[in-house]
Sequence to fold (66 residues):
Amino acid sequence: MGDVVYVSQVRIEREGGPVRRSYLPAESEPTWYGSHGPVAEHYGHEPGRYPEHATTLDHVVGAAGG
Fold:
């Protein structure tokens, strides 16, 4: 195996319920994760209880689709 060339330094803070804030390299503002629509409904979150944000799955699909 070759030498490690990069280790991602990410910090994640839970805000409550499904809402999380992450600090990613090269980004000056935090990235928010949460749930919305059918995903929130699936997990039983009451409408309006938490602010809606993209899910981690939404971010993975967006990153892989690039």
Summary: The mean pLDDT is 94. Residues 11-64 form one domain. The helical segments are 37-42, 56-64.
